[in-house]
Amino acid sequence: MRPLKNTVDYFPHDTTQRRTIFILKNKFGLIGYGFWYSILEILGQTHGHAYDCTRQEHRDYIEAYTMLEWSECKKILDKLAELDAIDRALWEENNIIWSDNFVLRLNELYRKRREQQPVKPDIRVVIDAGNSECLAGNPAKESKGKERREEKKELSSPPEKPAAMLVSFETFWKAYPIKSGKKKAFEKWKKLKPTPKLLQTILAAIDAQLKWRRNAHGQFRPEWPHPTTWLNGERWNDNLSGGGGGDRASPERFDVYVCSCGQFWSKKRLNSSSCECGLTAVLKAYDRAGIEELKKQKAALCTTG
To answer: Given pLDDT bands bounded at 50, 70 and 90, which one contains residue 253?
Structure first.
């Protein structure tokens, strides 16, 4: 006999978007869109299709699954409750995620099963170390201690293949200026498993490197590497303080005495500001490109002299 099942492996995903999706995308962008379908995935694989957010580990799991901080998750969940996409009373009063529309759309699936279709949760406060417990699913089973424990186990068991990974990658892909090798870049992204904090660091680094290249002022700037190369090299850690080309270290600098007569010499060779022409030289710092420019100026002075 097949075991009774109170979860689903799939749920309908219309190609025609409804009001909730339009509002989420307008207010939160693709993050809101991906978050909503991530929540539906969690509900689909949660016993009874009700998710209890009163427990810290359950909130931590939503953060990890959606790759968002809990403060951002709560903002979107509050909006979903306002839109009646999730039950407003259950969310605002008990921090439980339940969607009537989601469960109703599973009618045909449960009609083919022996298991009774889950109903809206019955909330009971259990005076046990100050914890509250959400009892969802088949009411006939709620009185059985063993199956209550199984419900709680199912409630916290992690679903697979989070859609949030794709959403965060698309955020990176939209920001990165080179659109080449997307498939390989996504494979690297999945291995990287960036946290929300790292994603923000990466986006900030891309923005900084874009400005760094735009404001070159004639200095050399390397071309953007392919996205996979950029991720492999963890190029969000690049030091952009130098003018030499986005390396992790600043370019080599030289302390040079420069005289108005055209002569110049390295401080290492001769630590003196007195020029043979009788004038006083000025100590300046140059990179290799600057040294080459000094040589050209000196040659030009010698030619005109």
So the answer is: low
